[in-house]
Amino acid sequence: MLSLGIYQRNMWHKSWRTNPHKNCEIIDRISRNATLVAIVRKYLGAEPILWLTRLRWTFPPSDHPVNLRPPLDRKLGQYGNAFHYDAHDFNALTAFVYLTDVNLDSGPHMIIPGSHKNKSLQDLAHIVIKDDVAQRIFRNKIKVILGNKGLVFLEDISCYHKQAVCNKKPRLMLSVDYVLRRSVPPESVTFQDG
Ligand SMILES: [Fe+2]
């Protein structure tokens, strides 16, 4: 088992870690936190499956070791900086945990609450929307989530969301995806198991 501190200090060569809960006890405990899981269970209306956890550093341009950054990270970063929605399952919920203090300079998470509801077929076809389109359609519904290290928030990521551009300070965020039916290869991890 690794400590969260080791992840925090030693991820500078790589922006992403997938499923850190499998070898970091504190992340596993966060992911299975009884209060968190109870909220997810109530939202999903059934026993959730812990589908995926991810740790992601985001760096301001001047901090990032550009030459070491793999092309896949660049692609994911660009996608995350545009409003988009995700569909992990027919119903899913994601917990986000800020592991660094996040202000307007450190790429805060942005969300358009309610945009997951009543999607038309045309809406469904637009997984990614440009900022000007989001501003025109949703205007003052767009929220920026600022907070100190330790802030936890839950989101149905079938609503439009994105990461704002990281200007000055690095950001480390944990995401924990809970689903209802989708299996995690090679095995599904349910909360009754842990
Ligand atoms: Fe997303």
Describe the structure.
Helix content is 24%, strand content 25%. It has a single domain, classed as Sandwich (Jelly Rolls). Mean pLDDT is 83; it is low at 67-77. The longest helix has 11 residues, at 34-44. The chain is α+β, with helices and mostly antiparallel strands and 194 residues long. It has 6 helices and 11 strands. Strands 1, 2, 4, 8, 10 and 11 form a 6-stranded antiparallel beta sheet that branches. Strands 7-5-9 form a 3-stranded antiparallel beta sheet, with no helix packed on it.
State the share of residues found in helices, binned by percent: 10-25%
Q: What summary fits the major beta sheet? A: 6 strands, antiparallel
Q: Could you spell the SSE succession in H and E letters?
A: HEHHEHEEEHEHEEEEE
Q: What is the total number of structural domains?
A: 1
Number of strands: 11
CATH topology (fold) name: Jelly Rolls
Which superfamily, in CATH terms, is the homologous superfamily?
A: q2cbj1_9rhob like domain
Structural class: alpha+beta
Question: What is the architecture at the second tier of CATH?
Answer: Sandwich
Overall form: globular
Continuous helix count: 6
Low-pLDDT parts are: 67-77
Q: For the record, what CATH class applies?
A: Mainly Beta
Residues in β-strands, percent: 15-25%
What oligomeric arrangement do these chains adopt? single chain
Mean pLDDT: 83
Q: Return Rg in Å.
A: 17 Å
Q: Name the ligand types.
A: fe (ii) ion
N-to-C span: 16 Å
Write the layout of secondary structure elements.
Layout: H1 4-9, E1 16-18, H2 25-31, H3 34-44, E2 49-58, H4 71-80, E3 83-84, E4 92-98, E5 109-111, H5 121-125, E6 128-129, H6 131-138, E7 143-145, E8 152-155, E9 161-163, E10 171-179, E11 189-190
Antiparallel strand pairs: 1-2, 2-10, 2-11, 3-6, 4-8, 4-10, 5-7, 5-9
The protein binds fe (ii) ion.
